[in-house]
Sequence to fold (286 residues):
Amino acid sequence: MTRPVHVVVVAYGAADQLDFCLSALGAGIETTVVDNSGSPAVREAADRPGVDYIDPGRNLGFGAGVNLALQTLLKAAPRDVLLLNPDAVLDPGQLETLTRYLHRRGNERVAAVSPRLMRASGLEQRVVWPFPTPLRCWADAVGLSRVPARDSFVIGAALLLRWEALQDVGLFDERFFLYAEETDWQRRARALGWTSSLCRDAVGVHAGAGTATDTTSHEALFHAAQETYIRKWYGTGGWLAYRLAACSGATARALVRGGERRAAAARRARLYARGPRRCAGLAGNP
Fold:
């Protein structure tokens, strides 16, 4: 069994990438573009048959932008929802492969599925990751990051969500401004008996950080999302353990590495010493 798919793209500038993303999808696939930048160029790129354009009037962040579309979609006829980054490309044939995998016999409890993702350079991006935990952060700090994880999630660059799981799990947690929204949603799905999966037969292309103009700011936002996630699922004590592990691991790497890798490790150690949410300007948010 397959069913219609509705694509949701949350954009912030980068109209050229959005235009390429939508063009690759082709005609006939219903799509909603949520424009967090209010950009005339983004509006123009989204002006095509089958695409609904929403300008919320401010930058809601990714999760809240997705929710804006889902609030309408979840009241309509059943359809699966593909979350697609504007810097990601998935053509109709790959989307059909992904959809067929989701509805393959035996996958009835798969809530979220991702294709394999390739960089423009031709290198394959890692898609499956273990759920963050304080214990795993300590394992990474002492060099045991390759220990297999029992539970994992798939990243949200091109993520197909099952209709029934969306109805069961609900909307994204809007406390996550950018990054970790899909991690949290899949963690909630797992608690309800759903799983996540990688479809190796479907392949997309993902540029990565397509709207990033300030890599330092985006790094702070990424780790701020980790702080929000750990605080939510493991409380203040869990966050303190995670933060200490992150600081210790980054400091150790800064001492033994050289060049840019040393500088990057030192930046991360300082980030966790100060607090990622504080560095990202999110300290006062819930």
